Amino acid sequence: MIAPDPIVGHGIYRILVCRPNHRLGNTLLLTPLITELQARYKGAEIDIVSEGDIARDVFKGFFSVRQVFCLPRRGFKHPIAFLRMILRIRRTHYDLIVDPSVHSGFARALTRIFRGRYKLGFSDAPTKALTHAAPRTVAGRHMGKRPVNLVRWASGDDVSAFRNHPPLVIHLSEDERAEGLEALAALTTPGHGAPSTFRIGIFANATGAKRYSTEWWADFMATLSAAHPAASILEIIPAHGHSMLREAWPGYYSSDIRRMAAVLGGLDLFITADCGVMHLGVAAGAPTIGLFHVTATDVYTPYGGHNAGLDTGTCSGRDTARHVLGMMEISLSNRRATSDPVITDVRAPTARRSTGSE
Q: Matching CDD domains, A to Z (predicted)?
């Protein structure tokens, strides 16, 4: 479907993205939209409405982002601070307001309150909150691609030609990457001082049913480490500050997501359950394999580059590790040939893999 009155680039200088959410993964999944807006409206300035403080760190490196408005979490418990920020945002009359969420009633309510010439979002029925309501069929499946599809639809682009979506990115500076590599080297250099040949990061935590058991990870790690004893393995420690792998490997902990991203960006391979830190690894540029067994792989899978999503189903940790090892062997072969790690598809009957590719 083509928008009846496309939003052209002329006269679009002040943009507001309305995505009030405090989760790391959902915030990082918004970065392709910001990249798309920067490329499409090159002379514009972008403000973002988020929730909590994490968005300031995520969008710190985006050149066109002016202001990140971080609403207080559970704003109804902080009504004065909440209302002050809403009134502050309303002072600006935006040329374009984007509500990228398919289902958030809160984001839609804020979009209606804020002042803008064009208001863009998903809706199958006419609504006074939007000047441009895209059918939900335009959204597609992947959470990171939906907002990009929305902007392209409103610009009059052919929906069937939606390809080459921008990747997740956190825009680390050269200094941040250098410091991350330094920290990584200190943690992964063997005792004899020889440089590590392959550095693998593991994040073994996730929320609720997405978390694999300690025993599952023990089987996974035993199989992985036995097959590659020369590899340096680093556990990325969760926010609660405790190892999920029984302190069997060196660990890195940081409450600062940019420092964590800098370390992740230096890994040759990052293996993680489906969670916000998985998306952080992708945004940092680490070749990432995300492990899924309850959430929809095609909605959240790491896409683009050398990333992959693996639907483990009911597979054991041992069988999942064997599948990952097949992917690693091709990665190591390509790395020796090109010095660039590549994750390539290897089929196995015990697990289902999705790349989320274009």
A: GT9_LPS_heptosyltransferase
